[in-house]
């Protein structure tokens, strides 16, 4: 980001434009070219008469007149809302215990709590149904010993369970950050006035952490609302996203309803975001204040410690169960209608290592580059939105964030439609089948995550620190490079990790854009394996590799963030 | 950053060297199938390299449609004949002269090659019922031999299949039954089978996956899924019902292919006796279209050219199937896939009522049950309508002739069917519950 | 002293004294409080004065129950509270940052403590209003904290604390976030309020003027140890050591020894002091007790002005002498002679009341 600004200061064609303005224009062009226009190319079909090609709103009328779609909308809404509830129940204790108490293993718990986000496609659902399905480990044992089953994975329940386990880290991350920013005196004054325990949490701590919580909850809501992978894998099709997918990708079908649903998905998601922004406006209490005491971490008594560890272990066991199932699958031989695999083997890993090295290299290259671009663009947007008065700056934020709501398939088809005709120089062929387009797709799809982290980091940065640097003679761009970016490092890194980790297992847009197996990423490799009976173990093994690589990266970043926090003295300074 | 640039540079080099004599294949086949073919082909033709791009059938067709203006693909290689039909109708396939010997014109009653010469069948697949032996044993279920078996109440909740709209091969099975038993009888059969389902999957591989892991007992699958699963070691078996669709898996050269000569070489290799034997590889398990290839087949390997194989196979009318392709898919989705819960509730209610009155001789109850059965089996359109261009036109991509009047928009028609179906299922359940209470 | 009305008096159930006995406290291996002993009388306005890092806030927080558990005893009234959690101590604390909850209105903030005490709703309303009336903010009850000025926030914090009728009121640098003129006004209001309620109050500050003007007695802390306890005037006039002398007002501390009923500086200058204690080796000279003179002779110390500061009512000189730099304040008025930096001057030292330190 600093790079664009320094370049722009040497930019002489439009000398009246500031560096920030040039960066803003470049980002706007980028978002238009790689997000807005490709999506519009796909979605405008929603406004066309299938027969005559004339503009019409008839399709929307049909949508609202169709019982199936009404029901799908209700189901999608219900599943999203319930997923937020369940995800909250999972995330809240983890966030609270690790941020507000002196607790050994906080970094590990926070890292483990992040891992569910890195659930490779297909394998997760297979592992979950092997554990919790109708004839999965748990139900087979329950049925053998107690003669009943619990329908964890049936219908909408299954979607809610899988989605909340998959997406709760968004709440965990945001809520933890918000809890860390509550000044100790806020809690102490309540204790001083007689509040303690759950009442203290309910009346003071949680309301103060509300903005962070809502940011996470909105993200979960929208992701679940727009996600089609999980419902499709669980064979739930009476929801909006799967309906859109089924209708867009059917062979030779020209059903405009798929595009209508896509439009409604995007519109509803943007509306939800906007509503959550509106709700949060004026509520972003930065409570770490002058004369405050920083963060308080309380000690726990032995009894409380045992309870806390019990709760945490229980939650971790639940949220990591898909990964546990994945491990069994990867090391197991045959696993069919039995609590555990019949035997164990290393064969699948052997297969993966001999056949699939290029997937790992490609994934690191694609997801890494995309995540770097994400934090660069994210920091730039954050700076432009928060620190400059450029007209229309908020639209950069809205546009980038809207990418959250764009189904990957829609983006993939949009890219094919828009860029296939463009020939790249140097014999790279059509732009849409160039591997770089995969990086761009990943970057656009993961930009909202990085953007939110960068925004949060910059918001907490006092303007006085920048003014001090400028006062001492640093130019705007040098201030950004020497003061703003280093102080935002923690947030930028968090954004990088989220973008990287989720990009590393992304499939929906990628699968449309991969044009050579040698240029395919990991998730695509997993997809290939998981299409055949013999590939189940190997797919799981590749999934494990993906998780391990990303988890290691996450853990390292956590360590760096922690170290950074200590170094800049944001630890617990007592009087 | 430097590493990134280096990576970019290396990537450029890799791309430019790879384009020497590369044949690019877009396929829906798993690596288990493409891998052995790639290895065998590159060994036989060291001057060629096979570049395999895997996408599911739907994504492949979308990809080929979207990229037609600057095509980079040489070959499309997939099971579903209907996908080839779509590509052919959109002029995306090239008519190439392929030299192949010893391959008959028909397998079962299905023509192996496109009569117009746009694509070639290279392997055959039959449809069967795949079941998990541990599951069947634990639930003490009999083995289903025929499609009709799956209609009986004891299989309630144990069956899985994929939606015909998602899997071209499943579509053929649905259509086979509709042609074999007649429109009304066929749909009735599917509804009673579907009433016993615990899931209708959105991926064709979802069915063998469910049976392999034991979440479903029986799956209606294309045979190689069952055979390959068994070969991998899963406790599963496959039976061929006497009425089965034998369908070829196909290969075709894309119009305007960058490497048409190479494409031709590969297609000829796949159809050669050498290529045909690759199909017997245990992780592939598809039926060669060249009868000679069966000489080296392992014991018990099904031979569709054998007289004993699927004696009840019907004469499959390809034109009929093609004309109402999307309509049948949509009708299946509306009546079964999207309303599976309603259908299951109605079917279960009827099954319970029948069990309650098996020997009671209560005529009022029998009448109610009969009425409920009629309601479940009721169809919103007749066979004539299903073949009427003004009806099928509703579901087609682009009308060939502008003068065909269609009856409405797809969403409108589907909504009509949907309320018709949901209403009937609800009434049927109520009647059956009344009967059971008598 | 302002008499408390019945209504106001009823706000305080019972005020209590505080006794601290041999209190030790460490953060990990760092000792922060070492052997604190003190007694604060019921109704007393008591200040903890010290530089930052002296342990004064830690001591206050220990009384409120925050921070690590200390060793020793803290008695409020007759009750040892060391093992009680903060919410059971019934001490009211006003935080330096005020710690008003931004998500609650002024009224909700003030009502909070009463609600936590499970007081019936109909009783809470009047109590909240009484507390707000006491600090003069009744008309702002529905505002959110972010809509208030610093002084108003301070008052809300105070009202919130008083509303729970604590036995003891703890104020942690309550004026440090206010601007200078408001600070003077607030400290008077605080004192008036304390007198009205007759509530035992501890006031933590690093500002000697604040401590001097408000407190009945104060404790000067440094390095986690109490240096001296007493009335502000006593501490100023009779500092127990150099730290107290230097911390309370400006002091020239000159080294020397007692000889023949006088204090003789290192350079041999003789300062007559009445009844000097044996063994004293330093004398504390306040700048205002030294005058610049033209005279020469007995008791007159020569020097040269190094630096001059204009303070408004006074002019301060830093003067180089044989006994080191000495600070001298002279009244600024029409009659006083102004000296330029660099000029040679003579100092006449009035050491009749000058404290001697051993």
From TrEMBL, chain A:
<feature type="domain" description="ABC transmembrane type-1">
    <location>
        <begin position="73"/>
        <end position="272"/>
    </location>
</feature>
<dbReference type="InterPro" id="IPR035906">
    <property type="entry name" value="MetI-like_sf"/>
</dbReference>
<feature type="transmembrane region" description="Helical">
    <location>
        <begin position="422"/>
        <end position="444"/>
    </location>
</feature>
<feature type="transmembrane region" description="Helical">
    <location>
        <begin position="200"/>
        <end position="222"/>
    </location>
</feature>
<keyword id="KW-0812">Transmembrane</keyword>
<feature type="transmembrane region" description="Helical">
    <location>
        <begin position="77"/>
        <end position="97"/>
    </location>
</feature>
<feature type="transmembrane region" description="Helical">
    <location>
        <begin position="21"/>
        <end position="47"/>
    </location>
</feature>
<feature type="transmembrane region" description="Helical">
    <location>
        <begin position="259"/>
        <end position="280"/>
    </location>
</feature>
<dbReference type="InterPro" id="IPR000515">
    <property type="entry name" value="MetI-like"/>
</dbReference>
<feature type="transmembrane region" description="Helical">
    <location>
        <begin position="483"/>
        <end position="505"/>
    </location>
</feature>
<comment type="similarity">
    <text>Belongs to the binding-protein-dependent transport system permease family.</text>
</comment>
<dbReference type="Pfam" id="PF00528">
    <property type="entry name" value="BPD_transp_1"/>
</dbReference>
<feature type="transmembrane region" description="Helical">
    <location>
        <begin position="364"/>
        <end position="386"/>
    </location>
</feature>
<feature type="transmembrane region" description="Helical">
    <location>
        <begin position="306"/>
        <end position="335"/>
    </location>
</feature>
<keyword id="KW-0997">Cell inner membrane</keyword>
<keyword id="KW-1003">Cell membrane</keyword>
<feature type="transmembrane region" description="Helical">
    <location>
        <begin position="109"/>
        <end position="132"/>
    </location>
</feature>
<feature type="coiled-coil region">
    <location>
        <begin position="451"/>
        <end position="478"/>
    </location>
</feature>
<keyword id="KW-0472">Membrane</keyword>
<keyword id="KW-1133">Transmembrane helix</keyword>
<feature type="transmembrane region" description="Helical">
    <location>
        <begin position="537"/>
        <end position="557"/>
    </location>
</feature>
<keyword id="KW-0813">Transport</keyword>
Automatic annotation (TrEMBL), chain B:
<dbReference type="Pfam" id="PF13343">
    <property type="entry name" value="SBP_bac_6"/>
</dbReference>
<keyword id="KW-0732">Signal</keyword>
<protein>
    <submittedName>
        <fullName>Extracellular solute-binding protein</fullName>
    </submittedName>
</protein>
<feature type="signal peptide">
    <location>
        <begin position="1"/>
        <end position="20"/>
    </location>
</feature>
């Amino acid at each position: 980001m600093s790079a664009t600004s320094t370049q722009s200061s040497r930019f002489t064609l439009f000398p009246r434009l500031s560096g920030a303005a040039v960066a803003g224009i470049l980002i706007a062009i980028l978002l238009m070219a790689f997000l807005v226009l490709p999506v519009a190319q796909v979605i405008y079909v929603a406004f066309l008469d299938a027969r005559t090609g004339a503009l019409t709103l008839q399709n929307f009328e049909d949508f609202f007149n169709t019982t199936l779609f009404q029901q799908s909308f209700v189901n999608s809404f219900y599943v999203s809302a319930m997923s937020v509830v369940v995800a909250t129940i999972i995330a809240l204790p983890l966030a609270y215990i690790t941020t507000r108490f002196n607790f050994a293993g906080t970094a590990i718990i926070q890292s483990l709590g992040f891992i569910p986000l890195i659930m490779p496609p297909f394998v997760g659902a297979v592992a979950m149904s092997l554990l919790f399905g109708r004839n999965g480990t748990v139900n087979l044992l329950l049925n053998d010993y107690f003669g009943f089953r619990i329908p964890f994975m049936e219908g909408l329940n299954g979607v809610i369970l899988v989605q909340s386990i998959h997406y709760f880290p968004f709440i965990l991350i945001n809520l933890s950050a918000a809890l860390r920013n509550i000044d100790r005196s806020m809690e102490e004054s309540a204790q001083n006035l007689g509040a303690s325990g759950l009442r203290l949490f309910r009346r003071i701590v949680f309301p103060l952490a509300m903005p962070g919580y809502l940011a996470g909850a909105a993200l979960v809501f929208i992701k679940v609302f727009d996600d089609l992978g999980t419902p499709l894998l669980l064979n739930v099709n009476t929801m909006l996203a799967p309906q859109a997918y089924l209708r867009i990708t059917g062979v030779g079908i020209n059903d405009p309803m798929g595009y209508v649903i896509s439009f409604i998905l995007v519109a509803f998601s943007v509306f939800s975001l906007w509503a959550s922004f509106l709700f949060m406006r004026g509520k972003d209490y930065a409570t770490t204040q002058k004369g405050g005491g920083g963060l308080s971490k309380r000690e726990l008594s032995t009894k409380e410690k045992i309870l806390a560890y019990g709760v945490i272990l229980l939650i971790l066991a639940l949220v990591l169960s898909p990964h546990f199932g994945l491990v069994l699958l990867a090391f197991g031989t045959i696993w069919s209608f039995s609590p555990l695999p019949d035997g164990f083997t290393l064969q699948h890993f052997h297969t993966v290592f001999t056949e699939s090295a290029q997937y790992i290299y490609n994934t690191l290259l694609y997801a890494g580059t995309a995540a770097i671009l994400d934090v660069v663009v994210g920091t730039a947007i954050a700076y432009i939105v928060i620190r400059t008065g450029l007209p229309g700056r908020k639209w950069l934020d809205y546009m980038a964030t809207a990418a959250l709501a764009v189904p990957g398939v829609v983006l993939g088809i949009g890219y094919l439609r828009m860029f296939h005709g463009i020939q790249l120089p140097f014999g790279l062929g059509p732009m849409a089948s160039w591997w770089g387009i995969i990086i761009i797709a990943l970057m656009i799809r993961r930009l909202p995550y990085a953007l939110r982290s960068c925004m949060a980091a910059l918001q907490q940065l006092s303007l006085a620190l920048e003014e001090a640097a400028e006062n001492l003679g640093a130019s705007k761009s040098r201030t950004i490079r020497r003061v703003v970016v280093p102080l935002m490092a923690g947030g930028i890194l968090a954004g990088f990790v989220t973008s990287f980790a989720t990009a590393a297992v992304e499939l929906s847009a990628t699968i449309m854009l991969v044009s050579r197996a040698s240029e395919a990423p990991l998730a695509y490799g997993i997809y290939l394996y998981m299409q055949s009976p013999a590939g189940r173990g190997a797919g799981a093994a590749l999934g494990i590799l993906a998780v391990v690589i990303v988890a290691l990266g996450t853990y390292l970043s956590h360590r760096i963030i922690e170290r950074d926090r200590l170094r800049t003295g944001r630890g617990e300074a007592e009087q | 950053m430097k590493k990134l640039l280096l990576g970019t540079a290396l990537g450029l080099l890799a791309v430019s060297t790879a384009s020497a004599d590369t044949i690019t294949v877009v396929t829906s086949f798993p690596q288990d199938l493409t891998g052995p073919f790639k290895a065998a082909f590159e060994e036989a033709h060291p001057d060629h390299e096979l570049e395999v791009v895997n996408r599911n059938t739907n994504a492949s067709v979308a990809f080929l449609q979207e990229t037609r203006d600057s095509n980079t693909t040489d070959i499309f290689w997939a099971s579903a004949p209907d996908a080839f039909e779509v590509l052919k109708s959109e002029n995306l396939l090239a008519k190439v002269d392929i030299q192949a010997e010893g391959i008959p014109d028909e397998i079962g009653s299905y023509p192996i090659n496109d009569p117009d010469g746009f694509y070639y069948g290279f392997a055959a697949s039959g449809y069967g019922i795949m079941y998990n032996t541990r599951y069947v044993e634990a639930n003490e279920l009999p083995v289903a031999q025929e499609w009709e078996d799956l209609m009986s109440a004891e299989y309630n909740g144990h069956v899985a299949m994929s939606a015909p709209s998602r899997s071209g091969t499943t579509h053929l099975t649905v259509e086979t039954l509709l042609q074999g038993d007649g429109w009304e009888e066929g749909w009735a059969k599917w509804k009673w089978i579907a009433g016993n389902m615990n899931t209708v999957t959105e991926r064709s591989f979802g069915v063998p996956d469910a049976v392999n892991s034991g979440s479903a007992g029986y799956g209606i699958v294309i045979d190689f899924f069952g055979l390959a699963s068994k070969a991998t070691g899963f406790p599963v078996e496959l039976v061929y019902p006497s009425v089965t669709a034998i369908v070829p898996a196909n290969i075709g050269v894309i119009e305007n292919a960058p490497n048409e000569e190479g494409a031709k070489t590969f297609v000829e290799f796949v159809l050669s006796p050498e290529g045909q034997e690759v199909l017997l590889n245990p992780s592939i398990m598809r039926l060669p279209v060249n009868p000679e290839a069966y000489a080296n087949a392992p014991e018990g390997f099904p031979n569709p050219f054998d007289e004993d194989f699927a004696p009840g196979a019907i004469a499959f009318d390809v034109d009929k199937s093609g004309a109402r392709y999307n309509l049948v898919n949509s009708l299946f989705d509306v009546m079964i896939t999207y309303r599976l819960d309603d259908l299951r509730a109605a079917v279960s209610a009827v099954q319970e009522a029948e069990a309650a009155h098996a020997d009671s001789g209560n005529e009022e109850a029998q009448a109610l049950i009969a009425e409920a059965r009629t309601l479940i089996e009721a169809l919103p359109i007749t066979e004539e309508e299903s073949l009427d261009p003004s009806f099928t036109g509703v579901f087609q991509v682009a009308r060939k002739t502008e003068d065909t009047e269609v009856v409405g928009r797809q969403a409108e028609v589907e909504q009509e069917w949907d309320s018709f179906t949901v209403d009937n299922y609800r009434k049927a359940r109520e009647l059956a519950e009344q009967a059971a209470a008598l | 002293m302002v008499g408390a009305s019945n209504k106001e008096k009823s706000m305080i159930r019972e005020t209590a004294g505080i006794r601290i006995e041999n209190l030790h406290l460490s953060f990990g291996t760092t000792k922060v409080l070492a052997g604190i002993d003190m007694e604060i009388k019921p109704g007393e306005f008591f200040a903890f004065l010290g530089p930052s890092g002296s342990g004064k806030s830690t001591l206050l927080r220990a009384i409120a129950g925050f921070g690590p558990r200390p060793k020793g005893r803290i008695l409020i009234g007759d009750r040892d509270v060391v093992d009680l959690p903060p919410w059971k101590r019934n001490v009211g604390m006003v935080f330096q940052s005020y710690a008003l909850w931004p998500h609650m209105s002024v009224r909700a903030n003030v009502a909070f403590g009463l609600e936590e005490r499970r007081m019936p709703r109909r009783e809470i309303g009047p109590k909240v209003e009484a507390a707000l009336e006491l600090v003069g903010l009744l008309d702002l009850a529905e505002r959110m904290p972010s809509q208030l000025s610093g002084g108003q926030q301070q008052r809300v914090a105070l009202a919130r604390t008083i509303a729970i009728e604590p036995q003891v009121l703890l104020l942690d640098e309550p004026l440090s976030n206010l601007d200078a003129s408001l600070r003077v006004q607030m400290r008077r209001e605080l004192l008036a309020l304390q007198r009205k309620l007759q509530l035992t109050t501890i006031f933590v500050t690093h500002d000697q003027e604040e401590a001097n003007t408000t407190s009945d007695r104060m404790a000067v802390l440094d390095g986690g140890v109490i240096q001296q306890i007493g009335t502000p005037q006593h501490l100023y006039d009779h500092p127990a050591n150099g730290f107290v002398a230097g911390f309370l007002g400006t002091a020239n501390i000159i080294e020397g020894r007692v000889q023949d009923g006088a204090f003789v500086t290192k350079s041999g200058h003789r300062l007559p002091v009445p009844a000097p204690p044996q063994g004293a080796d330093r004398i504390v000279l306040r700048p205002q007790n030294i005058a610049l003179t033209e005279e020469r002779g007995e008791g007159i110390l020569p020097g040269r002005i190094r630096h001059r500061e204009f303070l408004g009512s006074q002019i301060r000189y830093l003067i180089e002498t044989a006994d080191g730099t000495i600070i001298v304040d002279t009244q600024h008025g029409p009659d006083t002679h102004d000296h330029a930096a660099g000029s040679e001057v003579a100092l006449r030292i009035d050491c009749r009341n000058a404290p001697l330190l051993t």
